[in-house]
Amino acid sequence: MSHDPTVLDATVRVLAEAAPDADQTGQFPWTGVRAVHAAGLLESTVATRYGGEGAMLSDAAHILAALGRGDPSVALISAMTIFNHLGQATKGHWPDDLYRRLLAEAKQRPLLLNAARVEPELGSPARGGLPATIARRTTNGWSITGRKRFVTGAYGLTHFLVWAHTDETASRVGTFVVPNGLPGIRVIENWKSLGMRATGSHDVEYTDVEIPAENVLELVDPSVAQQDNRGHAAITLALTAIYLGAAEAAQEAFIRFAHERVPANLGHPIARTERFVALSGEIDLLVSGARQIIFGALESKLDEAERLIRARLLAGRQIREAVQMAVRGIGNPGLNADLGLERHFRDIQSVLVHAPQEDTSVSILGRAAFDRWNRAEAAQSGYQKTLSILKTA
């Protein structure tokens, strides 16, 4: 599956033109989101059985990398919906009638879905624990009460996918589909991040919000409700493609500056100096290398969690370092908003903040390495015992 590159490029240009203002105001980036919707990109991963294009995860990552070059905040808001359609394509966990109604809505306006999982007391579900948010049974459905943090795109979402536990005698945990705009929903404007400002990842409070009985996905026993950090490794790696796009935009800004800057004492662009040639090479090594790492991993087996986690960490660290190098290399002009580099620098700091965070991911790799060694030791010990028995026989 591949989108028309002309349409994708035009969409990226719209995002890039609107990005500085969206970053400064922190308002919901409707200009960019509407452009993504108009290009048909939000529904790119809708399954063919629903009349969609059936794009796979690697296709989605290519789209997100392109959108990230324009505005990573718009790309992140878009990613949440794109990944939800992909989840339905692969797992089919949405009630069919409800999902088809949402697809019908998507023909009229941008359908924007996002999970509301993190809570003030619990923190990220990636670190374990169950939600305090409660879903109570009502005569006609469910009533949702609780508070969620870091709800990306809060103001513009059409539906919140709220993680909550039920008030049943044997409590269950699940995701409740809550349409935005219902009575009892309050967005608490507390997103004051260094970067990714236009994501509007505010807190959202739900107070006795009434939803229909069928608006629930995957109600399960709490014992099997923990977030699977290894199982989500492929999605998290694809998310990193957004920041790859931002790093590529930073690289382009660096190269343009190097060609346009002509110091009077030099008489030619600084791009012709050995220092900037070497800097350009180092930045390209990190950014283009990260692209190879991300898509090399996504275009092969997606069931090897450690390999995917390793790729995400390596790529994330590389692009973070590359943008920092570009800013440092240019000096004062690199910190000026006019060039755009400082916005890319701020946005790129979020690359490894998404759950599971860097320390959790590193711990997964560390335990896996220990487990491999223990298995090898056990196998060697078994071999030695067998050998000893054969010698004495």
Automatic annotation (TrEMBL):
Keywords: Flavoprotein, Oxidoreductase. Residues 119-209 form the Acyl-CoA oxidase/dehydrogenase middle domain. The keyword Flavoprotein applies. Residues 13-79 form the Acyl-CoA dehydrogenase/oxidase N-terminal domain. GO terms for molecular function: flavin adenine dinucleotide binding; oxidoreductase activity, acting on the CH-CH group of donors. It holds the Pfam family Acyl-CoA_dh_2. CDD domains: ACAD. Residues 239-355 form the Acyl-CoA dehydrogenase C-terminal domain. This is Alkylation response protein AidB-like acyl-CoA dehydrogenase.
